[in-house]
């Protein structure tokens, strides 16, 4: 119920920002530009979807940015260096992301490391491995045109496949978080982990599953960014985790766990893309773009807190 | 929330008004959208300054943006997408990864927007010309001065930013190539790479000095590498090592003034920005452009660092 209200607020914010840009610049509202915005949301959106589950449990995953870079490099290794058929290579890269998530889950759930520390370590390991495996050079998918179509192909005319992937991933994530046992336990853990464990739920196992799921999204993001760029860039990814976390927070998911929604996360990711796109179209100097983005995050979280306090009083 | 969101929107629109920039369709001269490799680094700020000066003189408007770091290929591609969406009269583009941008460059071509490459070439048929430093020749010039300074014989080490970028490769090969051809008495140590990171380059320098106490000269191939070399030599307490650098920046200028560094090669970033805009304006007028525009380089040291010609191209 509360999450629903926050989604509505975030959505209203998105509409207001978009309306301002639509009035201020003739290009913003064109079909081509709206597709550009959706397209530029894909990678951050996928990372944000996966990390929503982790944040709902009260955890955090800092490894998704560099983990994505490593998965992109692994995809390049499977498809280009080993010469596997590209669908298989892409699938293996997604699964490799799951493996990264599994490591995070085991560190936090089994060995009890704080998620911040465990995933910070994974973030550094992934960054290093991405450079080692790729020998610090981009891996190009020139001879796998099919792989590139994953992102820029158009099954629907004038509508990139990458956006379809994001829509499908959003649907899957929404069902998992709202309608599955895994989602229910994620909320339960985030609200009160001890009580959840006392009620007979194997918290360790479910937590590992949740971090692994986040890793699968990281792997998918790695495939999609390398398909978009036609190359696996070993150094592109650091910093993406913070943008993804910002999207989740703008969307009304609480960093203290127990509250959140997939739709909110997608709206949060869209708000970031719309701001970036609109401010660029308006030729606002780049220094100010970041300032405005930061202020929007503050406002979104503040509005969320104020609303919850108001609800608590009544 | 709603009121506040409006406030932000208002801020954005106020920003637009404050910027006072036409969007190319405003009929106030041609508009060139420039997408660079970065914007925070002083080098890019100098390119921007040159572009702005040239545009102001010609009654044109420009916008200049680039990603926060020179690794963010995706962010740059998004910026290029948005630049094309603005339908500028021309585009200036310094590719972080030229192959990743090919589709967008083709799109610009299809919309008859001329594209001018700058800083480094783009592996594409789309750009009409490339305004860049001839890094091979510039590094050769650095080698020539190094050889003269150490008397044509002895061990020389190279600290280069990376082996993947074109500038890294050319500033390495230009230096080693000149030495191989012209300085038989100079013995080059294996090339070391420090990612242009000052601290890493300093550590590498100290390792080199530890392993080769008789090193006579060290060459740093970009600003970060060169400053790192100076740091490393300072930290190790060694004297009598000849250091030759690249680019400028305050730390390097101070090191040259104080005698820690013998001299450096500077590119001409202000001239690069000016050449880029001038080429874009000629392309808009339908003129045919030469394939490459050499934006030049200069050797500077204690003797000419304050001359007007050099001061014009250095940045702090």
Automatic annotation (TrEMBL), chain A:
<feature type="transmembrane region" description="Helical">
    <location>
        <begin position="235"/>
        <end position="255"/>
    </location>
</feature>
<feature type="transmembrane region" description="Helical">
    <location>
        <begin position="208"/>
        <end position="229"/>
    </location>
</feature>
<protein>
    <submittedName>
        <fullName>Ribose transport system permease protein</fullName>
    </submittedName>
</protein>
<feature type="transmembrane region" description="Helical">
    <location>
        <begin position="159"/>
        <end position="177"/>
    </location>
</feature>
<feature type="transmembrane region" description="Helical">
    <location>
        <begin position="34"/>
        <end position="55"/>
    </location>
</feature>
<feature type="transmembrane region" description="Helical">
    <location>
        <begin position="113"/>
        <end position="133"/>
    </location>
</feature>
<keyword id="KW-1133">Transmembrane helix</keyword>
<dbReference type="GO" id="GO:0022857">
    <property type="term" value="F:transmembrane transporter activity"/>
</dbReference>
<feature type="transmembrane region" description="Helical">
    <location>
        <begin position="262"/>
        <end position="282"/>
    </location>
</feature>
<keyword id="KW-0812">Transmembrane</keyword>
<feature type="transmembrane region" description="Helical">
    <location>
        <begin position="62"/>
        <end position="82"/>
    </location>
</feature>
<dbReference type="Pfam" id="PF02653">
    <property type="entry name" value="BPD_transp_2"/>
</dbReference>
<dbReference type="GO" id="GO:0005886">
    <property type="term" value="C:plasma membrane"/>
</dbReference>
<keyword id="KW-1003">Cell membrane</keyword>
<feature type="transmembrane region" description="Helical">
    <location>
        <begin position="88"/>
        <end position="106"/>
    </location>
</feature>
<keyword id="KW-0472">Membrane</keyword>
<dbReference type="InterPro" id="IPR001851">
    <property type="entry name" value="ABC_transp_permease"/>
</dbReference>
<feature type="transmembrane region" description="Helical">
    <location>
        <begin position="288"/>
        <end position="305"/>
    </location>
</feature>
TrEMBL record, chain B:
<feature type="domain" description="Periplasmic binding protein">
    <location>
        <begin position="32"/>
        <end position="287"/>
    </location>
</feature>
<dbReference type="InterPro" id="IPR025997">
    <property type="entry name" value="SBP_2_dom"/>
</dbReference>
<dbReference type="InterPro" id="IPR028082">
    <property type="entry name" value="Peripla_BP_I"/>
</dbReference>
<dbReference type="GO" id="GO:0030246">
    <property type="term" value="F:carbohydrate binding"/>
</dbReference>
<protein>
    <submittedName>
        <fullName>Ribose transport system substrate-binding protein</fullName>
    </submittedName>
</protein>
<dbReference type="Pfam" id="PF13407">
    <property type="entry name" value="Peripla_BP_4"/>
</dbReference>
<comment type="similarity">
    <text>Belongs to the bacterial solute-binding protein 2 family.</text>
</comment>
<keyword id="KW-0732">Signal</keyword>
<dbReference type="GO" id="GO:0030313">
    <property type="term" value="C:cell envelope"/>
</dbReference>
């Amino acid at each position: 119920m509360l999450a629903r209200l926050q989604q509505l607020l975030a959505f209203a914010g998105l509409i207001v920002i978009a309306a301002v840009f639509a009035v201020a610049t003739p290009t913003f509202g064109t079909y081509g530009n709206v597709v550009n915005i959706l397209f530029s949301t894909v990678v951050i959106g996928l990372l944000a979807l996966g990390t929503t589950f982790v944040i709902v449990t009260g955890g955090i995953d800092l490894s998704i940015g560099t983990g994505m870079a490593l998965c992109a490099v692994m995809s390049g290794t499977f498809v280009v260096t080993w010469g596997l058929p590209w669908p298989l290579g892409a699938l293996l890269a997604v699964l490799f992301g799951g493996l990264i998530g599994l490591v995070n889950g085991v560190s936090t759930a089994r060995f009890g490391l704080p998620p911040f520390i465990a995933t910070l370590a994974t973030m550094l390991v992934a960054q290093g491995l991405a450079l080692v495996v790729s020998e610090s050079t981009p891996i190009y998918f020139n001879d796998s045109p099919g792989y590139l179509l994953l992102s820029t192909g158009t099954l629907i005319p004038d509508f990139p496949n990458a956006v379809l992937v994001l829509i499908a991933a959003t649907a899957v994530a929404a069902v998992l978080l709202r309608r599955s046992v895994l989602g229910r336990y994620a909320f339960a853990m985030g609200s009160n982990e001890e009580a959840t464990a006392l009620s007979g739920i194997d918290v360790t196992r479910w937590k590992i599953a949740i971090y692994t799921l986040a890793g699968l999204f990281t792997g998918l993001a790695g495939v999609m960014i390398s398909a978009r760029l036609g190359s696996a860039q070993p150094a592109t990814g650091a910093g993406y985790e913070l943008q993804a976390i910002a999207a989740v927070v703008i969307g009304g998911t609480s960093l203290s766990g127990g509250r959140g929604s997939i739709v909110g996360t997608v709206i949060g990711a869209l708000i970031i893309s719309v701001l970036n796109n609109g401010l660029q179209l308006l030729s606002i100097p780049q220094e100010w773009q970041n300032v405005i983005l930061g202020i929007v995050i503050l406002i979104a979280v503040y509005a969320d807190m104020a609303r919850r306090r108001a609800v608590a009083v009544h | 929330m709603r009121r506040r969101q409006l406030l932000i929107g208002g801020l954005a629109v106020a920003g637009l008004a404050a910027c006072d920039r036409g969007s190319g369709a405003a009929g106030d001269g041609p508009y060139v959208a420039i997408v660079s490799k970065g914007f925070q680094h002083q080098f890019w700020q100098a390119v921007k300054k040159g572009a702005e000066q040239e545009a102001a003189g010609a009654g044109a408007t420009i916008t200049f943006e680039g990603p926060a770091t020179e690794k963010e290929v995706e962010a740059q591609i998004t910026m290029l997408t948005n630049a094309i969406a603005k339908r500028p009269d021309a585009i200036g583009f310094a590719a972080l990864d030229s192959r990743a941008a090919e589709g967008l460059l083709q799109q610009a071509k299809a919309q008859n927007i001329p594209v001018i490459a700058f800083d480094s070439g783009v592996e594409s048929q789309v750009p009409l010309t490339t305004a860049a430093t001839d890094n091979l020749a510039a590094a050769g010039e650095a080698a020539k001065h190094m050889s003269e300074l150490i008397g044509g014989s002895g061990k020389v080490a190279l600290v280069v930013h990376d082996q993947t970028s074109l500038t890294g490769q050319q500033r390495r090969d230009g230096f080693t190539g000149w030495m191989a051809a012209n300085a038989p008495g100079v013995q080059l140590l294996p090339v070391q790479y420090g990612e242009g990171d000052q601290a890493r380059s300093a550590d590498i320098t100290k390792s080199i000095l530890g392993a080769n106490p008789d090193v006579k000269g060290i060459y740093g191939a970009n600003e970060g590498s060169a400053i790192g070399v100076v740091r490393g030599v300072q930290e190790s307490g060694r004297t009598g090592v000849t250091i030759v650098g690249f680019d400028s920046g305050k730390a390097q200028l101070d090191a040259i003034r104080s005698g820690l560094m013998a001299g450096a090669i500077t590119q001409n970033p202000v001239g690069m920005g000016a050449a880029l805009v001038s080429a874009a304006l000629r392309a808009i007028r339908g003129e045919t452009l030469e394939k490459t525009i050499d934006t030049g380089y200069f050797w500077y040291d204690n003797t000419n660092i304050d001359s007007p010609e050099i001061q014009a191209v250095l940045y702090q």
